[in-house]
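Batch job 17 of 40 flagged for manual review because the log was empty.
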Amino acid sequence: METNYSACTSILIGRNATVDGSTIIGRNEDCKAAWPKRFVVHEQQRVANRKFCSKANGFQLALPTVSAKYTATPEWTSQDGLFEEDGINEAGCAMSATESTYANQQVLKFDPLVTDGIGEEAMVTVVLPYIKTAREGVERLGQIVSKYGACETNGILFSDRQEVWYFEIGSGHHWVAQRIPDDCYAVVANQMAIQTIDFSDHQNFAWSAQIVDFVNSHQLNQHKDNFNFRLIFGTQTSQDTSYNTPRVWDGQRQFNPEIIQEPTSQTLPFLRKSSRLLSVYDAQHFLSSHYQGTPYDPLGDGPTNQRHRFRPISLAKTQESHVLHLRPQLPAAVANIHWLLMGVGAQSTYVPFFAGLTDTPRAYQIPVTATYDSESAYWTFKLVGVLVDPHYQQFYPQLVAVQNQLQTQFQNLISETDLKAQAIKPEQLAQLATEASHTAAQQALTAYQSLAARLITAATDLSPLNYQQDLNL
């Protein structure tokens, strides 16, 4: 079986660091350039004696009888597992899994990964439907990893309206989690990120039961004055400085431009306080970033030897990107928004889906093959990117115009939906959420289908077989 894991980029923002008092988590799912995703709603179910059996590695887990309603973005095929990746459940809890990371060999020598332990493929499916808070998500996943082991080292994002947590698996059975302070943000890029653990602070940290004894008994901590999870369990290699740390640097550059740092630094902090309050659009912009305004932009005009020096955040291999936006005050059905972008962040658009929706548009539930399908939302957005790539200078302004137009339409739709939600009965909220979500999806699809038609038409005259004839002949 081909290994299928997400080499992603993540962002987490506490509620006092946002302009609207919301909590925000988001991630790019980066794996393959042509590997479609779908968007679905799982309704609440009551099934006794249910067991999860992974097609990816044989991991098995007995599940509770009742599973909550939740949104998810599974693969186009379940042949090698579900990979549901991200979603919001009916209790107002959000989860994104996973941020692939790497443990050092010294740690893995004493606590190796478990072949049939839990992995990315299973996590959302066996955790999100069974939790009511972010803290419960940490507890449930922690219990699973400790008991059954993990087949991968990963980072997992949890949030509810009050709290944001980041969970990291460091070896076969050991893990830690940290609550993101309300006034802070964190960006993570395929490298273990959590730093000093305060074992006296159970409100803001969680950890596997025997982790201190494990580290001490195997003499893994070279800094006896503190317990730095990143240094003990993670890696600090030359590959990290070209593939991972520059993306963290880029995020911190955007939110703290006043702080001067090097993109190859191995000491970039896990947590930062932004120089301004952040919005959901800041999170989306970060996940769509490719080092704009720096010499490292692959699409820029910097020196040739710099433009492809670092791995950008927005990547051709992005399957989908999501920002899970949990807003205060309004009813959960419309307050919680699953912003979903299919395809490459810099070339696609984030569509707002209200978490209370009962069904997703058909275009988001197909295709059922890996090849191009003109009816598929995934392929509609990917097509525009394919058309823009070879003629970037000519077509990019048209792409940006459509992205900006849609962002305005979406914001207007959200404002209208918020007003309607305050004037209707609770039992009508699901229908409102569904109708508004379908409207947003259709706006995006129509705009991108029209843009693709214009770009195809314009591209017909950009062939290398063109020839400029002398007008005097």
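Reviewer: the log was empty due to a logging misconfiguration, but the result itself is present. Residues 9-326 form a domain with the Penicillin V Acylase; Chain A fold (CATH 3.60.60). Unflagging and moving on to job 18.
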